[in-house]
Structures are given as C-alpha cells and as structure tokens.
Specification:
The structure holds two protein chains of two kinds.
Chain A: H1 2-12, E1 17-18, H2 21-26, E2 41-43, H3 48-61, E3 65-68, E4 85-88, E5 95-99, E6 104-108, H4 113-123, E7 127-128, H5 140-145, H6 153-156, E8 163-169, E9 175-178, E10 210-217, E11 219-220, E12 224-232, H7 238-248, E13 254-258, E14 269-277, H8 280-293, H9 295-299, E15 303-305, H10 313-317, H11 322-326, E16 334-339, E17 342-343, H12 348-362, E18 366-373, E19 378-388, H13 392-411, H14 421-430, H15 433-446
Parallel strand pairs in A: 2-4, 3-4
Antiparallel strand pairs in A: 1-2, 5-6, 6-10, 7-11, 8-9, 8-10, 12-14, 12-15, 13-14, 13-18, 16-19, 17-19, 18-19
Helix pairs in contact in A: 1-3, 7-8, 12-13
Chain B: H1 4-7, H2 28-33, H3 40-51, H4 59-66, H5 73-77, H6 86-100, H7 105-117, E1 138-139, E2 145-148, H8 150-155, H9 157-172, E3 177-179, H10 189-193, H11 197-213, E4 218-221, H12 224-233, E5 242-245, H13 246-255, E6 266-270, H14 284-291, E7 296-299, H15 317-320, H16 330-340, E8 345-348, H17 351-363, E9 371-374, H18 375-384
Parallel strand pairs in B: 1-3, 2-3, 2-4, 4-5, 6-7, 6-8, 8-9
Helix pairs in contact in B: 3-6, 9-17, 9-18, 13-14, 16-17
C-alpha cells in the first residue's frame, strides 16, 4: 500500500495525494443516495502526463481507477464501487484555445462549466456553450461522458453531440486523439468524416478512458434573451404544445415542469421557453411566432402565457439556474436525487402522473421536469425527489420511489440517463444480447485489466 | 456542537468555491490543495461525519478546519438559506477542538502567545506603541477618537509602517486622536475565528472595560479585523462604540478638503481585505481615497469587491501558517493577478494583507514590477511630492 502511495506522490507531489481517513470518507460518496464505498487513494493530477502515469501504475498494480469531476451526477457514478484510486480532475482546468470563427473551444478534462461560461462572457461575448443547470462546478468532460444536456439541447441535441474532439488516456495508458485533432491541429470534428471513435468514450461513464482534453462546439450568443412561461392544467396537451413550439424553430431551450409547491404552481404544468435575438425586432418576431404556435390552446382556454413578475425573471434567466440546486434543501435536509430517463415526448402525461403517484405513495416531495432534446426527438424526464439527509427513513422512501419510477420509465420505452449501477443492470437486462456482446468486446479490448470505474457498465 | 442541526444540509454543490461569475475557484485552501475536503462543502461534510462518528478527531481534520481563512467567499456565494451560518459552523467546529485541546501546534502557540503575552508575537507590551515614534500622535487622554492599531500594526514591520502612515496623516489633518500604546490589547477577532471563544470573551470584556474607563466613544481602526470585532461582536458584550476603518476616515477628510493632495502619476490596483469587504461591505471608501489623488490611475483585478481573493492570512493563518506559501497559495496567486494589471502599486488596507502580499510579491520575484503599499502610505507619498 505504501508503495502505491509513494508512486502516486512521485507522480503528482505529496500535497495532491491522500489516503487519509478524511479524504477517503469524502470521496466515498456523492450527494445522492447511493451507498458509500471508500477509495484506497485520492489523487489530483495537473497534467495529461500525470494522468497517464497514474493509469499505467494502476494497470501495473491492477488497481481500479475512477475519474471524477464535481461528482454531481447524484447517482453514484464516481463512488469507487471496488475501491482503488479516485482521480479528481479539477486541477486540470485550463481553457486551452477558443477558435472564434470555427466556434469551438478546447478545454482540459477538469474544466468546469462555470469557468468556460465566464471565460466566454469576458473574452468572446458573441459565443456560448450549452451550459447545464447543474451547479457551475460540474465539468465539461464529465457532462459529455454521461451524455448531459444543457441550454442548447433543444437546438443541437445532447451536449455530447456538441463535442468536437477528444484527448483520452486509454485504460492501458496510451494518450489518444479522437476526431479531426488526430491528424490536424484543428478540433472541429469529433469523428466525421473519419471513423467516429468518440462513441467509444461518450456515455461510457468513465469505463473506457479518461478525457484529458475536450473540444466543444460553441454557438452564437445573441445580445438579448427573454423567457416566456406557458401554463396549462392539462398534462395530456404538453406533447402537442412542445411539438408546435419546436416546429417554430424560434426557441432556444424548452422545459416543461410541474411541482406541488409553492401553491401558485400547484396543479399546473408549465412550459418555460427562452427566446433570443440581436435586436428588439428579432426578439419580438420570435415571440410572435411562439405565441401564434400555441394560439389554439389559448383560444380554447386550455392554457395561456403567464405574466412573469420582473422579480422572478432573473431566476428564470439565470445560467445555471441556482433554483435547481436549492431544491435540495426544500426539506431542510440538503439532499435530492433524480432519475432522468430519456423518453419520447408523448410519454410526458403518463410519466407525470406516475411521479405524482410516487410522491403520494412514498410521502416524499417531488418535482417533475422535462427538457426537450432536439426538435421534440426526445426528452429527459426528471423524476426528482428531495430528502432530508438526517432522516434515513425518508431517504429509503426516496430510494424506493426512484426505483419504481425508473422501472416504470423503462416499461414506457425509456432509456436511462446517468444510471446508477443498479439501473445499468436493469437496462442491460433489457438490452439486445448482441448489443451487450459488443459492449463487452469493446470493454475487454480497451480495458484488459478491468480497472476503469469497475462496477459500471459491467457486462457479465 | 452549536449549529449541528444545520451541518447535514450542505449539498456540496460547490457554488461556494467560486466567484459570482464562476471566473475561477476563490477558496484559498481549495486553490492550494486541490482536494474537495479543503473547500467549504468538504468541511461541512467532514464536520457532519465527525458529529456522527464517521471520522474521528485527527491531526488532518484539525488542519482542514484551521486552513479556513474565514474569508467569507463561501458565505457570499452559497445558494442555500443557511449560508449566513457557514462561518459560525466552522468556528463552532474549531471551538470543539479547542475544548478538547486538539488544535494544531501553531494555533496553540498563537493562542498561548495572546493569553500570556497579549499578542501572538510574544513581544513585550511596552513595545506596542513604538511605531508612533516620529509621528505627532499622542497617547489617548480624552481625545475625540481612539486610534486602535492592533497586534499586527504594533509588532509586524509592514503593519508598523502602515500604522505610522495613518498616524502621520490623521493628526496633520486636524483630527483629535490618541493611541493606547502599551495599554492596548489584542482585539480578539481572529482568536474567536480560531474557536477560542473563552479567550475572545476575556479580551473583549477587558477592552470594553478599558475603553469605557478612559472615556472612549469613537474608534478608528487600522485593521479591518479589529473593525469587525468592534462593530459586530463587542456590542453583544455591551461595548457600543462608533467605529470607523481608517480608509473611511481618509475618504471623509479628503472630501472635506482636510488633506491636500497634489498630483501623483501612478497606476494602482486595490486588494479588498475580506474583513473590510465581504464581511462589512466597505468597498467604496478605499477606492474613493485612491481616485481622489490627481493623476492616480486605479485599475481593478478580475477578482474584486465581493469576489476578491483572500490574501490567505485570515483566521490567524498569517501567523499559524498552516498552509504555507507555494505557487498555488492565494497570496501568490493574488500577487500574480495584481502584477498582470500592469499596476506599479498593489494597494492594501489591512496590515495582514500587507504582510501576506508583500511576502508573496517577493516569492514570485515581482519586486521590480509591483510594490505593496498601504493606502495611507500612498496618500502620504502623494502629499510629500
């Protein structure tokens, strides 16, 4: 044990390695509900070369390694299920390049969403990226590893679709470039027109390599941004409303949500939609298109646009939206967790009804939120429950509610997003056997010693 | 432990690590050590673990708690309703360690120095007023204002220089002002931050008694830490005085044309001290003083005002030096940031910041590019030109 510690100290320096109880305690858990499991070591490298050396050491010693960003998936993906070395990537946070005209950025593997946003705001005010509503500490690499979504997902798809190149330390220690950067100094494509190898890493939850650099597509940032809130008490209308809104191609981000508290939101379904423009004229044109698209529902008195109090607007326009995080303390207990199955938008009504049912059945506070992915191609339906971390009984009820919720979502044809180890097993049980066989072949070839975040996407 | 009903509510989301615009991490121990345990969320989760026997008291646990600079960045940027109690929670956790006698040796040494000698430098009391030699400032004997200097201003070289500058300007501006000299005692602000609440209460009560005995009604402090103690903590113990930081007084005197200011062509950047800025929201007065000097160009660092990066000296760390210097120490990061503005002077308004940043500039090898100067020192230089 001491030898591994000394070797890690040799690689990154004494200050950035620990096997002290305090670090092992903290890095054994995330803020969600998954059981804790301690790592043997925690290490915080600063360079790709240091990551490479750690991976080679882990191979030599057959020790598991778990790459970690901010650990905010809430589903235990950074909990070292089989011990080993947790590699905290957040010291690798440099923004290496922004290509303004080709609209992409290259960042190190521990760069946070917040830091990139701030950097672009200060230096490239015409550019933006698809920032998620998770806390700003979450890293860009971890977000694309879990196929995260963000503010531009309705327009451009999953955030992982916006990757424009990768540098990955493979499980065997080789440093590998993925995409145009494999043969060019430019990071404009993650694959096409070459064989798209990015799929070997995106969505694999850190089981196939460690991203040390990410190329990320940037998008035009308009000068003005506003929010509209459409409200209806009929969940069955939401799919059609979303279909019509996406048809306009005038909207930035679209989410549908419902929650029992505060009382002004009770019993209704809200569609938050954002419009942007460089001029008042552009903004008002888009607003008119949006309003016209749902005119029928307004005329039939099935819904309407809610006037947003000026005091409420900053909350809606906030990026990331802080109020998403404060949901954790609704019960004054500092916890929430959500499953986020990806499903067809037509499933919104049944999933919404199920969430309300789960809240009642398990006596837990809930919040439902669906983010539109693409032009109504799918949605992430967040089955979210808040809990009191000091109330084990409430935590157990939330676990049960989540389990029943995700099972229901699978039965409705959904697929998991950032699944817990248990949800991964449930998903694999439903997968085509040849798909599983292919996953196994890929993992065994990339990671012959099985050291990469073991316990995740583990095909038996 | 006090506040233990709140500790489990931290979500460890990390908003507390950042500046408001997420420009970079802004928690000094986290910047230095790079592991989440050193940030506010880490401390909260470890304190909760300690309360629930998930971890035991250890040298490392104590180090993590005492590395907190009490800079207040976490309190400023936390998104939860309990944010106001974050520093109180850390203080309460440290108080538990004090109670058990399990504080790091350097902290123990610091506290014992104050208990035995009345100051952490372990210097004799009669040396306290020596900084005033050569100035017109007199011992307090019923003047309108007491100029309270504090430990760092009394014993540390940068602090003494700073006290000398303020002590030169204020009497010349016609202010009726006196000092306590050898009667002055530690204000206790950092003693409290280190969790030694008993010693803090003793110091505060003694100071309050003395101030009342000799008729002090109005106090000007050199040190923002003392300003914080006098304005926020002493009133709870019956010590209600009118208190100003010296930069506020300078701003008023300049506005009232009591201080003549010839031109001084120099480029300056200003570092907000945590106990003046984030803790007490005094951001404008120091800047007004600098801007009032004709020819002086004030440039801001990226992190300023409520997003200012701490010098790393708060919470007693200027003496206990639990974190040490090193390229990722916040004082050195700050020195680099200041130099990047192209300023010739890095202006400070706190003797602890002066000490920390002066050392950091030297460590970074930036002495030829930028010099640390206290605001009063800059005003003095402007007057003398």
């Amino acid at each position: 044990m001491r030898d591994v510690y000394n070797a890690l100290v040799e690689i990154v320096g004494e200050e950035y390695v620990s096997f002290r109880k305090e670090e092992l305690y903290f890095y054994a858990r995330d803020p969600g509900l998954m059981p804790a499991h301690e790592p043997d070591y925690v290490v915080a490298p600063e360079t790709t070369e240091e990551v490479q050396k750690i991976v080679k050491l882990a191979n030599r010693e057959k020790i598991p390694i778990v790459p970690m960003g901010a650990g905010m998936a809430l589903t235990g993906l950074i909990i070292p299920l089989k011990g080993g070395i947790v590699i905290d990537m957040k010291r690798m946070r440099r923004i290496l390049e922004v290509n303004e005209k080709a609209r992409y950025a290259i960042v190190e593997g521990g760069t946070s969403q917040g830091a990139l946003k701030s950097y672009l705001d200060r230096n490239y005010p015409n550019l933006r990226h698809s920032i998620p509503d998770a806390p700003p500490t979450v890293t860009i690499a971890a977000n694309v590893v879990i196929h995260g979504q963000g503010r531009l997902t309705q327009q451009y798809g999953f955030n992982s679709d916006m990757v424009s190149g990768l540098e990955v330390v493979l499980p065997t220690g080789e440093i590998c470039k993925i995409g145009s950067c494999s043969m060019s100094p430019s990071w404009f494509s993650k694959g096409p027109t070459l064989p798209d190898l990015s799929g070997l890493f995106l969505g694999w939850l850190g089981t196939t390599g460690i991203m040390t650099k990410v190329g990320l597509k940037l998008y035009p940032k308009k000068k003005m941004r506003d929010v509209e809130l459409f409200v209806t008490d009929r969940e069955d209308l939401i799919p059609e409303i979303l279909f019509r809104l996406t048809h306009t191609e005038m909207v930035e981000d679209i989410t549908a949500w419902f929650q029992p508290k505060p009382i002004i939101f009770q019993g209704n379904h809200h569609v938050t939609l954002y419009i942007t423009g460089d001029t008042d004229e552009e903004l008002e044109f888009k607003r008119k298109m949006v309003w016209d698209s749902v005119k029928e529902f307004r005329d039939n008195k099935d819904g309407g646009f809610m006037w947003i109090l000026p005091a409420m607007k900053p909350t809606f326009l906030d990026m990331p939206q802080r109020s998403v995080t404060t949901f954790a303390d609704v019960k004054k207990g500092g916890g929430f967790e959500y499953s986020g199955p990806i499903a067809l938008i037509e499933k919104y009504p049944v999933l919404a009804r199920k969430l309300v049912e789960l809240g009642t059945k398990f006596k837990v506070a809930y919040s439902g939120m669906a983010r539109v992915i693409g032009r109504s191609h799918a949605m992430m339906f967040g089955i979210a429950f808040t809990f009191n971390r000091a109330d084990p009984d409430m935590m157990e009820r939330v676990r049960k509610a989540l389990h029943e919720g995700i099972t229901f979502a699978f039965d409705q044809g959904g697929i998991p997003w950032k699944p817990t180890a248990e949800e991964q097993k449930m998903a694999m049980e439903r997968m085509d056997p040849n798909t599983l066989k292919l996953m196994k072949m890929i993992k065994e070839n990339l990671d012959p010693n099985g050291i990469m975040n073991p316990g995740n996407w583990e095909v038996n | 432990m006090e506040f233990e009903e709140i500790v489990h509510r931290c979500f460890r989301c990390g908003y507390c690590k950042f500046t408001e615009d997420y420009h970079d991490f802004n928690c000094p121990p986290y910047l230095k050590f790079g592991l989440d345990t050193y940030a506010a969320g880490g401390r909260m989760w470890l304190i909760n673990a300690w309360l629930n026997h998930g971890i035991e008291t250890s040298k490392h646990y104590a180090e993590i708690l005492y590395l907190c600079n009490t800079c207040g960045n976490c309190k400023e940027h936390c998104v939860f309703t309990f944010k106001e109690d974050l520093l109180n929670i850390f203080e309460a956790a440290k108080a538990e360690l004090v109670e058990k006698g399990l504080v790091p040796p350097a902290v123990k040494d610091y506290l014992q120095g104050i208990l035995v000698n009345g100051n952490p430098y372990k210097e004799p009391q009669h040396k306290r007023g020596r900084w005033a030699e050569g100035t017109d400032i007199q011992p307090f004997s019923g003047q309108e204002f007491l100029f309270y200097v504090g430990d760092v201003g009394s014993y540390d070289e940068p602090g003494k220089k700073m006290a000398g500058s303020v002590g030169t300007i204020l009497p010349k501006a016609g202010l009726s002002i006196g000092i306590l000299g050898s009667k002055e005692k530690c204000d206790g602000n950092d003693v409290k931050a280190l969790g030694e609440t008993g010693l803090f209460a003793k110091l505060a009560e003694e100071n309050i008694r003395l101030f009342k005995e000799i008729g002090v009604k109005k106090i000007i402090t050199l040190d923002p830490h003392a300003y914080n103690a006098f304005t926020k903590e002493y009133p709870k113990l019956g010590g209600k005085f009118k208190v100003w930081h010296y930069t506020q007084v300078l701003a008023m005197l300049i506005k009232g044309k009591k201080i003549p200011l010839p031109g001084y062509k120099v480029k300056v950047t200003y570092h907000d001290p945590c106990y003046l800025g984030r803790h007490n929201a005094i951001y404008n007065d120091p800047r007004e003083v600098l801007r009032s000097i004709p020819g002086l160009i004030l440039v801001e660092m990226n992190r300023n005002r409520k997003n200012s990066l701490c010098c790393g000296g708060g919470g007693g760390n200027f003496m206990t030096d639990v974190s040490g210097l090193g390229k990722d120490s916040s004082s050195r990061i700050r020195a680099r940031e200041a130099s990047e503005t192209g300023a010739e002077f890095l202006a400070v308004a706190c003797p602890i910041c002066y000490k920390m940043l002066d050392e950091a500039v030297k460590e970074e090898g930036l002495e030829e590019k930028i010099k640390v100067k206290d605001i009063a020192e800059i005003v003095n230089q402007a007057i003398l030109r």
